[in-house]
Amino acid sequence: MIDGADKARLIAYSLEQGFDEARVSSADFGKKPGEYLDAFLQAGYHGDMDWLVAKQKWRRHPQSLWPEAKSALVLGLNYAPASDPRALADHPDRGIISVYAQGKDYHDLIKKRLKRIARWIVQEFGADVKVFVDTAPVMEKPLAASAGLGWQGKHTNLLSRNFGSWLFLGCILTTLEIAPDDPTTGDCGSCTACLDVCPTQAFVGPYKLDASKCISYLTIETRAHIPRDIRSAMGNRIYGCDDCLSVCPWNKFAKRSREMAFMPRAELTAPRLSDLAGLDDTAFREIFSGSPVKRLGRNRFIRNVLIALGNQKDRSQVTHVTPLLEDPSPIIRVAAVWALHQLGSVSDFNKLYDACMIRESDPDVIEEWQIAKKERLDEQTG
């Protein structure tokens, strides 16, 4: 085990690399996180994120992934915004992109810094190391809580006394034995603001999230069609959702991120939905170059934009929806049919129904047309 002076050097070096928090946990964080993961998956709350099931054994515990690991250096990087992201909900013609995706991709930034620290550990102490951002089967939030960066709030995200709900996490597992820091004593008390604000009521209860109903999952993770009973609740959120994070009272202690890479790009802070609907693949890649949004791909992104356009309830937007009724992607055509149903007049709808159904072959798109047609008839007959 390294002594206190060496641990202090490690923490100091980590902070010098640009992190806002650096603390240590034992690689053994106990059985509870793994038990929670098992229950989460058994309940089906993961939706179609099958990769969670595929790597469940590794994810349950850091030492299941790497038995030789003794300690975890857990790093936090503040990404707090300058203003409340929920304000854009009052501007339905604009798309809401999650705060974390309005600047450069945090994965690349954090991984580079983690690798620098990892190399330093190897050079200074000769220990083995592995670095992780949130793309690997390691549960960073329980490790961060064990290290004392904060605690998992009722919204299931890490909650910090210093940074509220706005911390990116990364960790370095190592064979080096380092005295662990004490966990933070903190809780959410009787507050349920994060649970109450969720547009899709994705929280089963405090500390329990049904991810399959979460807008972040629906707009980013799932490759399927967004369920009809959830579409209206999504509003104008087109990539992620910050509502449960931004409403947290602990954010009053957070200060705007000082990381220049996270400064929001103007074109991503409040883009017009009508402009986004017309993006082809080349334009999509150009606009979102360097952003996490690019990994989503054009088709799923336009799916999200069409749901938001439908929720705008502005008939003038039909002109932006109509061309997408014949897009090559079925996932776009389904969303376009739904948006048309929300926006178009009876005559607009019937004309396009007849023209598109003659050529349509995808069963999901046909079903969407048929459901919309039936609902139109039901509305007319009262």
Shape: elongated
Give the N-to-C terminal Cα separation. 76 Å
Residues in β-strands, percent: 5-15%
**Spatial extent as radius of gyration:** 23 Å
- With strands numbered from the N-terminus, the spatial order across the biggest sheet is 1-2-7-4
- Element order, helices and strands? HEHHHHEEHEHEEEHEEHHEHHHHHHHHH
Features:
four-stranded antiparallel beta sheet, 382 residues, 2 domains, alpha+beta
Overview of this protein structure:
There is one protein chain. This protein has 2 domains: about 270 residues, no CATH class; about 110 residues, no CATH class. The chain is about 45% helix and about 10% strand. It has a 4-stranded antiparallel β-sheet, sandwiched between helices. A two-stranded parallel sheet has the order 3-10. It has a two-stranded antiparallel sheet with strand order 5-6. A hairpin with a 2-residue loop joins strand 8 and strand 9. The longest helix is centred in the first third of the chain and has 20 residues. The mean pLDDT is about 95.
Describe the structure concisely.
By secondary structure, this protein is α+β, with helices and mostly antiparallel strands.
Strand-helix topology:
Layout lengths: L3 H13 L4 E6 L5 H11 L7 H5 L1 H4 L2 H4 L5 E8 L17 E2 L8 H20 L3 E4 L7 H8 L3 E2 L5 E2 L7 E8 L18 H5 L5 E3 L2 E2 L5 H7 L6 H4 L5 E3 L3 H4 L19 H4 L3 H5 L3 H7 L10 H15 L5 H4 L8 H14 L2 H14 L3 H19 L1
Parallel strand pairs: 3-10
Antiparallel strand pairs: 1-2, 2-7, 4-7, 5-6, 8-9
